[in-house]
């Protein structure tokens, strides 16, 4: 179950996310980069519920002023963008292709709409790719080798699209207090504020909510 | 069946447009946004005899108005902002739509005009037919005059279930109307939603009363409806009206009144079923989220048989927000407010 701060779905400025990890990582990113959290986190629990929530909010009598959406590209970034376009087609005319710096869209009489497709609006993948790009202390290649060893011994069962997620959680499993909840574990990780992706994402968040 | 609707200059509406309607239609909205007014607009539009409909809405429902007043001072309440339009100006328009266009042959207009003798008239037109009533005369003359028109052949297949309680004589009449058509069973079946042991219904003479009263047979005992709670009386009112509206229309204001949320789903089930089997188009209003959920449960799997709209009022304008079943599902599954 989402905790209270992830349930602020009624805010006038609202950010829709796919799950717990997403909320924690974005909140952590904001803290680390000194971005004011002037929006409500709304944990929709999965990707299809994010899409449902966009539609439901747009039809509300009392629409939000700003709706931000962060979704994983998963296996097909283009298809993901088309899903979103299809869901809002009665309201917005969105650009044909997803802008690489994230979308901030204004249309008269409608909430300002922001879309970011993880990891970087261009590649397939998910939030974990985005996070591992910033968390430079996490030796992704080394952990991946170790996971591959485990795979050879048939000790794994994760789906292929969740490889980065497995890498991230494997790393945390080895730190002080294994099994620590993600929100606590990520507090101890240094993020690279100068990474290109950090600048672009920060720019998107600020231009959307400020 | 009415597939779309527009009302202009009627009651609280400068204009309201609904581009798609189906067999069962639910309208939501905040208090005083005009849900009842919309049903009233449908009532006048669908009624065979417009003056009869107007009389009912203004005199029977709104008791503060008197039939002894002149027509102008009573009828003005039907118009936007309670103001009679100046002679010749655009008045009330009620119509169905063809795309975005008003279907003239199916339009009803109500406006005022100046006659040859410089008297002002109320002019009601329906398609090409036109009726004129002097505005200075009593409202009751307007009503009497309407009864003399040759098209007075009101078939009675349009029923309006008001939000408030039941008029005893009226309910008795509805019951008697279906006596020879074995449709009373539909009513008895529906009443079992609340009272499982109910086996029969009768309207009997009562001491010191001129009208008959409704009683139910429950577990072999005779029980007056008036002693049985709001819910069962509401179902009696709704279903009896619906059965009387075969091949016609049923309007239900504040559907949920008196109905506990646990029974609303079953009442909607009966309504969806009778809408098909008796060929009745239903228009209902609500401001209850329980009612919306209950309606949604019956809408699922019948996507084309129903519509749902929320009436909004913003910046001095009315608008409607349509919901498909999938839209409602999106809102309910993400706990988002629909009302």
Automatic annotation (TrEMBL), chain A:
Protein name: DUF4435 domain-containing protein
UniProt-listed Pfam families: DUF3226
Origin superkingdom: Bacteria
InterPro entries, sorted: DUF3226 (IPR024508)
Lineage: Bacteria, Pseudomonadati, Pseudomonadota, Gammaproteobacteria, Candidatus Pseudothioglobaceae
Automatic annotation (TrEMBL), chain B:
Ranges for domain Endonuclease GajA/Old nuclease/RecF-like AAA: 3-79, 171-292
Protein name, as recorded: ATP-binding protein
Gene3D superfamilies in alphabetical order: P-loop containing nucleotide triphosphate hydrolases (3.40.50.300)
Keyword line: ATP-binding, Nucleotide-binding
PANTHER family per UniProt: ATP/GTP PHOSPHATASE, ATP_GTP PHOSPHATASE
Gene Ontology MF, one: ATP binding
Taxonomic placement: Bacteria, Pseudomonadati, Pseudomonadota, Gammaproteobacteria, Candidatus Pseudothioglobaceae
